[in-house]
């Protein structure tokens, strides 16, 4: 323990090499995904959550979309951990999951694909697109933190 104080090196030295924008982006992905699940479970309650899962399992297409949503959730978490370790595929994986989510939510909300498990309600198409942009704005900020700052780009290109 005294060696730590003499050398001035802490236990977290390996983490200090992570640029702040990447650390913030990875932490934000994990926090927002986990918090959204907790808030959804709290809002729905046990019975409504069970009903949602039961309704999702009524048909094959609903079941596949529900399973895909769970896979995307875990892929996003895995990408967040990977990008904080400096792997370039982590940020590109996150970009692909966001593109898939936005595409599905857009076509489901506009009524072009059924079932509309994860859709946005609105009176007009412009209102739906506006609401979708507002919902995905935090993810856009995370993507900006991963791709725009020079420290983030250098962090991913050194590996």
TrEMBL record:
Transmembrane segments: 20-42, 62-81, 93-113, 133-150
Keywords carried by this UniProt record: Membrane, Transmembrane, Transmembrane helix
Pfam families recorded: YbjO_DH-like
Domain of life: Bacteria
InterPro entries: YbjO_DH-like
Protein name listed in UniProt: Membrane protein
Organism field: Winslowiella iniecta
């Amino acid at each position: 323990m005294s060696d730590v104080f003499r050398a001035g090196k802490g236990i977290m030295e390996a983490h200090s090499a992570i640029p702040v924008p990447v650390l913030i982006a990875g932490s934000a992905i994990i926090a927002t995904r986990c918090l959204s699940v907790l808030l959804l479970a709290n809002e729905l309650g046990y019975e409504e959550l069970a009903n949602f899962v039961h309704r999702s399992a009524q048909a094959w297409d609903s079941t596949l979309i529900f399973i895909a949503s769970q896979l995307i959730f875990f892929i996003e978490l895995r990408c967040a951990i990977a990008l904080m370790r400096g792997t370039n595929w982590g940020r590109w994986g996150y970009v692909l999951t966001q593109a898939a989510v936005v595409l599905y939510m857009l076509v489901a909300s506009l009524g072009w694909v059924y079932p509309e498990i994860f859709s946005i309600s609105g009176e007009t198409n412009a209102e739906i697109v506006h609401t979708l942009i507002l919902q995905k704005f935090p993810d856009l900020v995370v993507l900006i933190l991963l791709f725009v700052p020079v420290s983030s780009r250098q962090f991913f290109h050194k590996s």
